[in-house]
Amino acid sequence: xxxxxxxxxxxxxxxxxxFTNQINSISEEDLKKKLPPSQNSVGFLIRHIGDVELLFAxxxxxxxxxxxxxxxxxxxxxxxxxTDLEALKNYVSESFEKLKAxxxxxxxxxxxxxxxxxxxxxxxxxxAFGRIVSHTAYHAGQLAIINKxxx
Length: 151
Prior knowledge:
The protein is mostly helical.
């Protein structure tokens, strides 16, 4: 029988394929695409997904070794700087690995413990993890639409 951690990881990794399956087909030119009236570009969304994964590793799961400057969260808008495809790919690969590593350390009991953040209040770790799963899938959908129809 699988642990809660194994099951949650499987769920997250599968849901994250909505994002990761797009990364290999994105070109550097695609990174600047936007779909008016939205100000967010493809590059911004990729960086934002990485920023939030690192924030989750640090603030929700308590990984004190994670250092993150979540520029997309701080700025709250696209500054136009997310145009280096290789750097973005490396960033979201790193964010995935760091979040995965700390999640793998969770016990079944940990998932029922509560955490409090200013962004979404008090939740169990399981509920909070649902936020990162849905966050990535939500922005992956935006990414696909912007990349398909944006200019």
